Structures are given as structure tokens and as C-alpha cells.
Amino acid sequence: MGEKKTNQLKDSGAAMPRRRFLQAGLAGSALAATGALGGAKSAAAAGLDIPDWSRQLGASVDDAPYGKPSHHESSVIRRSVEWLTATRESSVNFTPLYALEGFVTPNGICFERHHGGAADVDPVEHRLMIHGMVDRPLLFTMEDLLRLPRVSRFFFLECAANGGMEWRNAQLNGVQFTHGMIHCVQYTGVSLKLLLEEAGVSTKAKWLMVEGGDSAGMNRSVPIDKALDDCMVAFAMNGEKLRAEQGYPLRLVVPGFEGNMWVKWLRRIEVGDESWQAREETSKYTDLMPDGRARRFTWEMDCKSVITSPCPENPLTHKGPNVISGLAWSGRGNVKRVDVSLDGGKNWVEARIEGPVMPKCLTRFYLDGWEWDGSEVYMQSRAIDDTGYVQPQMTALQKVRGINSIYHNNAIQTWFVNKTGEVENVRLA
Ligand SMILES: Nc1nc2c(c(=O)[nH]1)N[C@H]1C(S)=C(S)[C@@H](COP(=O)(O)O)O[C@H]1N2
Ligand SMILES: [Mo]
Q1: Within a 10 A sphere around the Cβ of 86, how many other Cβ atoms?
Q2: Which residues, listed in sequence order, are joined to residue 223 by a DSSP beta bridge?
Q3: What is the CATH topology of the domain spanning 97-295?
């Protein structure tokens, strides 16, 4: 790790009295900014002049029947990594986590992962079939589904390969790329349990085989216990119908489980017994261990967190008080606590969680008014969920899992802040 100077934890965060934060912090830097600008232009920049947009009429109500973010935010987009995949259809792009607030991902920037491109499905033609080991095989139209009782729930979806490029070393310099295979929206749909009960599932049922209507089909197995627990067949996200990229008109929601089971453009659910176990044991998503054995059935996403500001995309620009902010999540339940370290994991201070805290949902945390004195910082966050599980350091995780896996990297992320405030993805020994 080499020589490093760190800021004192006792000077930062939760313990700081509010009065000092306001006096030494905000008021001071506001005056400094105005003073530093100087000259005629500074009046407008400081908001003391009347700018053009205050002198003329604005846009008509008919200009944007479906609104977009301000054009000043046009850089906040999903981005892909060109060398990562051979084609653009069977590929992935990443959520711009560095630019997000709260815990909800706006629909237009939810990362996309497809194996055969995003299908364009006609909702009128679309059917959902439930068959196999059931009393009554059923065929639903979208209209049928909309006449059933529905639920709305917030859940994160994380691809098992999120952070997969970071196993061996720090590789991608941006939180969008190290952690952006995740999104969190409010789903509305019908509980899968209700649909399975309508069909009358056999008591011998052990597995579901779920299938999508895209060219990849994406047949995946889901254990019956999970299916009857909290799964949903969703047709809406964040209050509007699913986006085509996210499986319009229907997708499976498998809370807390890895993204590949959340089959999009969902068209078929076949119910099977334990004889399906053998097939499941050869399923594609396994985690190769150092001794050549592979972990399997690793569906539940482990507890994890990351600081989204500062980060490589959000350098520090001011000494004095700064806000540290990030996201934490667990596929096993609620985030119970998040700690932040400013010295590469030697000392920790508890972050403030900005609610709501919901199971299998992203949770926002803050360290307010952290005084940056311009020295180098190795910044980390560590999440703890309500099972008591503590997010591990990468060295500890590698000891157990090695470096051959692509999947399920939930290690603590280290950001190195240099003296000019730039932030870099680094790996501590
Ligand atoms: N039908 C279908 N469903 C699919 C996929 C797919 O290629 N086809 N990709 C899966 C994978 S690997 C992930 S991580 C998630 C990604 O969901 P998103 O595109 O909404 O981010 O969808 C899953 N469901
Ligand atoms: Mo995935």
C-alpha cells in the first residue's frame, strides 16, 4: 500500500456539530467563490444579475409530450465497454451510479443485459403459459393479468457478473463500470405464487423452468420455494409499463437473486419435479474456485456497498466540508449498517442511512460534512446486513474464492483520492 497520509476520523462525519459545519463550511466557501470570480461576468454567475432565461418565455407545454432530463445532464447515460463483449446485441451496458441520488434508478438509465438483443414484443399478441406439473395449464393474455390483484415493490436487480472484471486487480476507472450492473426500481405486477396457485401446482414440484420471448430464450431454473415466496410477474416499473430493454411487456422479478434469473419478455413457466435437479447442476452460472471445484446455486446476492461520491467520475473540488455518499444492498434482507473508512480499512465510522430501508432494495448512505484537508485518502465503505454478514475486504474474499471466478464479487471497493482531489480505483494489498 506504501506510505499514506489519512484524515482523522474524529474530525469527520456524524459527530460534527451543525453550527461549525455552517460557519466554517458553506458560508465560507460561498463567499470565496464569488470573490474568486471577480469582474463583470461573476455577477451573473453568482446569480446577482438577471440571466436570459429570466427575460423571455420558456418552452411550450407541447414541446416535450414525454419529458427528458435537462440537456445540461446529457452526459448522464448508460455506457458500455467496447472490448468487453464480441457483439453489441449479446452485451451489457452500465448504470451511471455516480450521477444518481436516493435509491431509485430512473427507467431510461437502468443498465441492460441481453443475450440476444432486446426483443420488440407486441403486448396484444403476447401470452404467458403456465404448464407442466400443474392441475390446470393456463394461458394468460396481458389483459388477463391486469384483472388480477397486483402488488408494487422496490427491488434491486444485480447481474452476478457485476464487478467481475475487478477480481484480479483494479481495472475500470469509474463506479459506472465497477458497480453499474445494478438498478433498483419499483415493480408492479402479480405475485407468482398467486398464478401458481391458480394453476394448482403439484406437491411434487421442485423447480420452475422460465423462458423469455427473445431470440436467446434465456431458459432458467427457479427453485419452487423461491417462486412461492416473493417472486413477481411484473408489467410495470417506476409507475409506467416496462421499458422494452427491461422485458416489455412482462418480466420475472426474483428479489435478492442474481439478475440472470429475472427472465425478460417472459412467456413460459414450466413446473417440474426433483428429476430436474441433474439438469440444474450443469447450469451455466457457477463460480470457479482456486482448487478447481465450483460453487453452484449461488443465487442470493451477497451484501455489498460502494461510495458513489466521491468516485473517479466525481472528484473532490473543494477542501473543507464535503459529502460522502453511496449505496448499500443485500440479497438476503435489509442493510443494517454502513461504515466508511478514510484510511484503507484501519478505522471505521458509521455512516448515516437515509431511509427508507427496505429488504432486497438499494439503501442510500451519507457521511455529512467530512472535512477534506487536501491530503491523500484511501476511501472505503463496508455494509452489514440484518443477518449479521459483514462485506469482506478483497484480500479476504480472494483467500476463499481465488481469482478465477467472474461472478459474485462483493468485495469492499477502495477509491484513492490524491492531493488534487482526483479519485482512482485502486487495490490495497
Ligand atoms: N429473456 C431474457 N431475460 C434476461 C436476459 C436475457 O438475455 N434474455 N438477461 C438476464 C441477465 S444475465 C440479467 S443480469 C438481467 C438484466 O436485466 P436488465 O436488462 O433489466 O438490466 O436480465 C436477465 N434476463
Ligand atoms: Mo447477468
Answers
A1: 8
A2: 207
A3: Sulfite Oxidase; Chain A, domain 2 (3.90.420)
Q: Which atom of ligand 1 is nearest to the CA of 183?
A: 21
CA separation for the pair 367, 263 (Å, rounded): 37
Instruction: Name the closest-CA residue to atom 6, ligand 1.
Output: 114
User: Which residues are CB-neighbours of 384 under 8 A, at least 6 positions away?
Assistant: 303, 335, 336, 337, 338, 339, 390, 391
- The full DSSP string for 367-405 is EEEEEE-S--EEEEEEEEETT--BPPPHHHHHHHH-S--
Ligand 1-lining residues (CB < 6 angstroms): 110-115, 157, 159, 183, 212, 214, 216, 218, 245-246, 259-260, 262-265
CA distance 231 to 241: 18
pLDDT tens string for the chain (429 positions)?
Answer: 333 433 333 333 444 444 455 544 454 444 444 444 444 456 656 667 899 999 999 999 999 999 999 999 999 999 999 888 888 888 999 999 999 999 999 999 999 999 999 999 999 999 999 999 999 999 999 999 999 999 999 999 999 999 999 999 999 999 999 999 999 999 999 999 999 999 999 999 999 999 999 999 989 999 999 999 999 999 999 999 999 999 999 999 999 999 999 999 999 999 999 888 766 655 556 777 777 777 777 899 999 999 999 999 999 999 999 999 999 999 999 999 999 999 999 999 999 999 999 999 999 999 999 999 999 999 999 999 999 999 999 999 999 998 888 899 999 999 999 999 999 999 998
User: What is this structure's pTM?
Assistant: 0.90
Domain pair 97-295 / 304-426, same fold: no
Closest of 167, 174, 421 to residue 316, by C-alpha:
421
Fold category of 304-426 in CATH: Immunoglobulin-like (2.60.40)
Whole-Å CA distances, 285 to 157, 294, 422: 16, 10, 37
CB atoms inside a 10 Å sphere around CB 395 = 13
Ion ligand 2: residues, Cβ under 5 Å: 113, 159, 259-260
Ordered by start, the domain boundaries in the chain are 97-295, 304-426
